Automatic annotation (TrEMBL):
Name of the protein described by the UniProt record: Probable allantoicase
Domain Allantoicase: residue ranges: 16-163, 183-312
Gene3D superfamilies: Galactose-binding domain-like
Molecular functions (GO terms): allantoicase activity
UniProt superkingdom: Bacteria
Pfam families registered for this protein in UniProt: Allantoicase
UniProt keyword list: Hydrolase, Purine metabolism
Source organism of this protein record: Virgisporangium aliadipatigenens
Any single biological process term in GO: allantoin catabolic process
Similarity remark: Belongs to the allantoicase family.
Amino acid sequence: MSDLETFPDLASRALGGGVIHANDEFFAAADHLVLAEPPGFTRATFGPKGQVYDGWETRRRRTPGHDHAIVRLGAPGVVRGVVVDTAHFTGNYPTEASVEACGAEGHPAPDELDGWETLVPRSPLAGDSRNVFPVDSGRRYTHVRLSIYPDGGVARLRVHGEPVADPRHIPDRFLDLAALEHGGRIVGCSDMFYGSPANLLLPGQARVMGEGWETRRRRDDGNDWVEVRLAAPGRIHLAELDATHFKGNAPGWASLTAVDAAGERLELLPRTRLQPDTRHRFPLTPDRDAVNVRLDAYPDGGLARLRLWGRLTPEAFAALALRWFEALPEAHAAALLPGVERPLADPAALAPLVPALRLG
């Protein structure tokens, strides 16, 4: 795994990403591009149109031009790298690909998108390979367009980056501070033998045990843990430890400890018994704002989701709003606040767009 792949996949279906347009899907649907699971392949599995592929595959082009697909990012954000994965495509992969991105307001149709900016220029691809392309851009994008030259198959498109939340979607500064889509991130973990701890921060309910975080069985006197850097500093009022699907392998107990901006530790939830296959909710009454939170699971086991509902500090919310606006592509920012130059000296200039800034 490259360093850029430590960032979440903003295009993943697990985050709500989706393919909203493809000019050709003759052999295999473009929806496969954003599936979270690795691509698979079974030899000699033929359908009415040939070998079945777990990916997007277009027909052989007999006219000039190229094929393309547009993906709506599940979590809009700053892109740090792209992976064009041609796994299992050997004699039918594109020879080249490019990736563009744009930022759009609301919920546009494919033909309403414009202002495309190049993230990956037209570049050679290798077949049956994970083609990794670092991206140097500080802009927040909502959509990407993958172009393949001239045709062929791509198994997965990964768009790794940092989610940047829209402050207009955070009423009263209240949100799940741990959520990946808001910018929460795993910064430490004792064990992830059966499942990634990043799954804890995904939206929605886990469908199966494999969509959660699970550790191996401990044979010592220790315990497993995971640490989350919150999307922004805030005061946590409700914790949800969801053990759904974990029946014979849920932790017996758990605790939550916060770290504030000064590095001081604060007990949020003392060691508390958990029940298997249960969503546990714990009201909290902290007296300080948290920056990071550590979940300790005793002695081991698995959880499906971790939610940490709380209110951003006014300063943190202003900083989040400022980062969002400064990261917008030029056309998007100009459409929202015509005539306003960046960088902004004062987040208060965003109050016409973000009413919650007036709450103080």
